[in-house]
Amino acid sequence: MQSWIKEGDVVLFQGDSITDAGRNRDKGDDLGKGYALMAAAQFSALYPEKQVQFVNRGISGNRVKDLQKRWQEDCLDLKPNVVSIYIGINDTWRRYDRNDPTSTEQFEEVYRDILKQSAKLEAKLVIIEPFVLPVPEDRKQWREDLDPKITVVRELAREFGARLVCLDGLFAQASARAAASFWAPDGVHPSPAGHALIAKAWLQAVGAVE
């Protein structure tokens, strides 16, 4: 399989807490402790000759509107060759914990704007869809809000020619092998095993592994 990421590329991981994964924001090269680190480490071990630079600018709690506000500084100014975006679960979560919803229409409008801005870079795009598992039980209610947003993410990936990482089905499938809490103890934030699932799916999406 031919890797889609080229020699000397700069790969930017963007998103919320799942991408942030406890990174030290005072250190620009810190990739956190989650899927971004795992994917970058595995890619670099497989393709050391490519000398690819990986950057993480995920920020915990972000929604699409937060990405939009900082897109110039935390994406365009970095001039990445590959932009990987993983956002959406907080756009659903805030409806249920703060009564501060993001409509599907708002979500789509802002996400599309982010992707249009990224097109100025002529960067390749990787879009990771959000997921939720039924841990605790009240997360089941979230599906009514999240499912339409997942559909938007999939449609935008097709519209913008992005590589799509389909996590919702992946985590549902994994939960048939081990309890949902094994993969994401709160239904949202992945365990180390959950992050490893995402990293593998990401590497497959960019053609780095089969």
Automatic annotation (TrEMBL):
Signal sequence range: none
Residues in SGNH hydrolase-type esterase domain copies: 15-197
Molecular function per GO: hydrolase activity
Keywords from the UniProt entry: Hydrolase
Source taxon at top rank: Bacteria
Cross-referenced Gene3D superfamilies: SGNH hydrolase
Entry keyword annotation includes DNA damage: no
Hydrolase is among the record's keywords: yes
Alphabetized Pfam families for the sequence: Lipase_GDSL_2 (PF13472)
PANTHER family listed in its UniProt record: SGNH HYDROLASE-TYPE ESTERASE DOMAIN-CONTAINING PROTEIN, THIOESTERASE 1/PROTEASE 1/LYSOPHOSPHOLIPASE L1
Protein name per the record: SGNH/GDSL hydrolase family protein
